[in-house]
């Protein structure tokens, strides 16, 4: 793989078949912010998403719709979990609702991007049947386009590049050095950020995070300490 000295920002519009987020936004008047996606055991993944709409009843319709998809195993509401900064920065509708969803891994295209050295710079915003992706990578422009063509072919997807440019301005986004984390460290760290663990005051405790991940609290802190050391460049 050819790499650049500075990260490349890639913004995309994506459609792919069998995606419950895309189909939900086609069937209901909601948008969906995908904030954390992680692989779990076997062929299942977990997604932490925020639904947004102009009316609360639209959110009810969307939750009911999500639970009808065969590729969705569970859709659990998570009350009061959206950090204020995320809500304001994403400019959702008048009403929001957070869900923790366990689903078939193949129903989402996120793994295809993350496994090919792309990092999500902002939440994936799905509305009106299309996903809006904002990614960072060290790949060259030509390599990016070749890789996106490979992903589109493999997933029978439609991928439109909205913009593609090198950038050093990643303020307020996921740290680019997050690519140095292991898959498990990234999963734990991104969930901690999304749930407000690093807010002041904290919006979730380490014990609550550990329970959600089904790991010991000591293990959670070990993952977070290692992730923080890598991101801060400390030994």
TrEMBL record:
Keywords (A to Z) from UniProt: Transcription, Transcription regulation
A Pfam family per the record: HTH_10
InterPro entries: HTH_bacterioopsin, WH-like_DNA-bd_sf
Gene3D superfamilies, A to Z: Winged helix-like DNA-binding domain superfamily/Winged helix DNA-binding domain
Residue intervals of the HTH bat-type domain: 181-232
Name of protein: Bacterio-opsin activator
Native species: Natronococcus pandeyae
